[in-house]
């Protein structure tokens, strides 16, 4: 699974990958992403998975900090 900055979903995938293998991890991670998407639509909230350190670096890069 590819992700530039990691995050909660990547950590979830990697944790499952060690225990269950690639195929089951992909399915479980896909299901998790669908659950997150459904919750976002239902509640109107945004998903925030960027780690604090990466967020601060990105804000500083654009001069917003």
From TrEMBL:
Organism: Leptospira weilii str. UI 13098
Protein name: Transposase, IS116/IS110/IS902 domain protein
Phylogenetic classification of the source organism: Bacteria, Pseudomonadati, Spirochaetota, Spirochaetia, Leptospirales
Superkingdom of the organism of origin: Bacteria
């Amino acid at each position: 699974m590819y992700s530039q900055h990691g995050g909660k979903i990547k950590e979830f995938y990697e944790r499952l990958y060690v225990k269950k293998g690639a195929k089951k991890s992909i399915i479980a991670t896909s299901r998790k992403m669908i659950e997150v998407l459904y919750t976002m639509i239902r509640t109107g909230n945004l998903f925030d998975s960027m780690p604090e350190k990466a967020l601060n670096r990105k804000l500083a890069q654009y001069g917003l900090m």
